[in-house]
C-alpha cells in the first residue's frame, strides 16, 4: 500500500473515531456498566448558600434582565448573594447595577482596575464571595427558577465538586444557528455520557457551580469553563452534568460571531488543558485522559485530518477505487459552499446548513489550534 493510501486511511480512522467511534464506545461502556440509579438525594442540611458570580463588560442592554432573573430564583433569600464584577465597563452597566444594589441587599457591584478580562473579574468576585457554592453564569444566560435547588441537591453527594446544567440555545432560521444547534446537541450528549461514566472534565461558561473550597484562581489567558472543571478533577472530585437542571443561552447568529467564538474557545482551552498535564496521564487519570484526548484534542485536530484526507486522496485519483471517495469529499465541500451562500436567507434552511456549520466550526478549530500553539493569549474580549 502506498504512503498516500496509508495517510488517507489513517485520517479516515481518526475522523470516524472522533465523531462516531468515541460516542459509541461511551454508550456501550455505560450500557455494560448498568449503573445503579443514584439514591434520592435531598438538599444538604443546613441549606448551602450560593454566591452567583456574573462577570460583565458593557452589558447595559442585558444586566437588568439578568439581575431580575437571578433575584427571582426559588431559593432562600438569605442564602443567596449576587456579585456583579464589572470588567472596565464604560457604558451604563455599573449605574444600573448600583440601582439594583440600593434596592436589594443581595446584589453587590465589584469593579476591576482597567480591563482584567473575564477570568480576572471572576477572581475578584470569588475573593469577595461568602457562599458555600459558587455559581458562575454569563449575562446572556437565563436560569430556570429551580436551578439553585437542583444544583444544591447534587452537592449532597460529597464526591461531587462541580455541577453543570444542560444549556439550551434559542432557535434561529439562519444556517449558522441551524448547524451549530445540531453540533451543540451532539456535544451535550457526549457530556452526559461522560458525566454518567464519571470522566466529565468540562462545563459551559453559561452556568456551572462548584464548591468554594475547590476554586483555584483562574489565569487570565484561560477560560473558566475549561480550567475550573480540570482543577476539580485534579483535586479528586467529580464533575457532573445534571440533565434536569436547565439554562437558556444565546447563540451567535452571524458567521463572524461564531468564528470568533470558536477560535477563542479553542485557543484558550488548548493551552488550558496543556497547563494541567497530570490529567493527561493515563496511569493517574485513565478515564479523564482518554476523554480529554478523544473529546477535545482529536476534535480540534479534525481540520488537519480533513486536509490530510483530501490531499492524500487527490494523489490517488489515478486509481479508480479511490476516485469515488474523493468525489464524495468534493460534493461535501460544495454543499458547504451552498450553505454559506444561503446563510443569510430567511426561513427554513435546507440540509446544506449542516456541512457549512461543520466546516465553519473546523475553520475555528484550525485557527484556534494555530493560535494556541503559537502561545496566543486571549485575556479580554467582547
3D architecture notes:
The protein is globular. By secondary structure, it is an alpha/beta fold. It is built from twelve helices and eight strands. It has helices at 3-33, 63-71, 93-103, 117-128, 147-154, 175-197, 224-234, 255-274, 286-300, 302-314, 320-341, 353-373, and strands at 50-56, 80-86, 107-111, 133-137, 142-143, 160-169, 207-211, 238-249. The mean pLDDT is 89. Helix 2 (63-71) links the parallel strand 1 (50-56) and strand 2. An eight-stranded mixed β-sheet has the order 3-2-1-4-7-6-8-5.
Quick synopsis:
This protein has 382 residues and is of the alpha/beta class. The protein contains twelve helices and eight strands.
Mean pLDDT: 89
Order of helices and strands: HEHEHEHEEHEHEHEHHHHH
Structural class: alpha/beta
Low-pLDDT stretches: none
Number of strands: 8
The CATH H-level superfamily of the domain at 50-265 is: Spore Coat Polysaccharide Biosynthesis Protein SpsA, Chain A
Residue share in helix: 40-55%
* CATH structural fold name of the domain at 50-265: Spore Coat Polysaccharide Biosynthesis Protein SpsA, Chain A
* Rough outline: globular
Reading off the top of the CATH hierarchy, the class of the domain at 50-265 is best stated as Alpha Beta
CATH architecture annotation name of the domain at 50-265: Alpha-Beta Complex
Ordered list of secondary-structure elements with their pairings:
Blueprint: H1 3-33, E1 50-56, H2 63-71, E2 80-86, H3 93-103, E3 107-111, H4 117-128, E4 133-137, E5 142-143, H5 147-154, E6 160-169, H6 175-197, E7 207-211, H7 224-234, E8 238-249, H8 255-274, H9 286-300, H10 302-314, H11 320-341, H12 353-373
Amino acid at each position: 500500500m502506498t504512503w498516500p493510501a496509508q495517510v488517507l486511511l489513517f485520517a479516515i480512522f481518526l475522523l470516524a473515531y472522533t465523531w462516531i467511534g468515541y460516542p459509541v464506545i461511551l454508550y456501550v461502556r455505560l450500557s455494560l456498566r448498568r449503573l445503579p440509579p443514584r439514591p434520592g438525594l435531598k438538599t444538604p442540611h443546613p441549606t448551602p448558600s450560593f454566591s452567583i458570580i456574573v462577570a460583565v463588560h458593557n452589558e447595559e442592554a442585558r444586566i437588568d434582565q439578568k439581575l431580575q432573573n437571578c433575584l427571582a430564583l426559588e431559593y432562600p433569600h438569605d442564602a443567596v448573594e449576587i456579585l456583579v464584577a464589572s470588567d472596565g465597563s464604560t457604558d451604563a452597566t455599573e449605574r444600573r447595577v448600583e440601582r439594583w444594589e440600593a434596592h436589594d441587599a443581595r446584589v453587590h457591584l465589584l469593579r476591576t482596575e482597567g480591563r482584567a478580562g473575564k477570568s480576572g473579574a471572576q477572581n475578584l468576585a470569588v475573593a469577595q464571595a461568602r457562599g458555600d457554592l459558587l455559581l458562575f453564569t454569563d449575562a446572556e444566560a437565563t436560569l430556570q427558577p429551580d436551578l439553585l435547588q437542583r444544583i444544591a441537591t447534587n452537592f449532597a453527594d460529597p464526591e461531587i465538586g462541580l455541577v453543570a446544567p444542560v444549556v439550551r440555545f434559542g432557535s434561529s432560521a439562519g444556517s449558522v444557528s441551524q448547524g451549530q444547534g445540531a453540533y451543540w446537541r451532539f456535544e451535550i450528549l457526549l457530556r452526559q455520557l461522560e458525566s454518567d461514566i464519571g470522566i466529565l472534565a468540562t462545563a459551559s461558561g453559561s452556568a456551572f457551580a462548584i464548591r468554594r473550597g475547590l476554586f483555584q484562581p483562574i489565569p487570565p489567558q484561560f477560560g473558566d469553563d475549561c480550567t475550573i472543571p480540570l482543577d476539580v478533577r485534579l483535586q479528586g472530585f467529580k464533575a457532573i452534568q445534571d440533565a434536569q437542571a436547565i439554562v437558556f443561552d444565546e447563540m451567535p447568529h452571524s458567521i463572524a460571531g461564531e468564528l470568533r467564538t470558536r477560535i477563542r474557545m479553542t485557543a484558550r482551552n488548548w493551552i488550558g488543558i496543556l497547563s494541567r498535564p497530570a490529567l493527561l496521564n493515563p496511569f493517574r487519570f485513565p478515564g479523564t485522559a482518554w476523554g480529554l484526548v478523544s473529546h477535545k484534542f482529536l476534535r480540534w485536530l479534525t481540520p488537519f485530518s480533513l486536509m490530510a484526507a483530501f490531499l492524500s486522496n487527490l494523489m490517488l485519483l489515478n486509481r479508480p477505487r479511490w476516485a469515488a471517495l474523493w468525489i464524495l469529499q468534493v460534493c461535501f465541500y460544495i454543499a458547504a459552499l451552498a450553505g454559506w451562500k444561503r446563510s443569510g436567507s430567511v426561513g427554513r434552511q435546507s440540509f446544506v446548513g449542516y456541512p457549512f456549520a461543520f466546516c465553519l466550526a473546523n475553520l475555528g478549530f484550525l485557527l484556534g489550534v494555530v493560535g494556541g500553539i503559537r502561545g496566543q493569549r486571549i485575556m479580554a474580549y467582547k
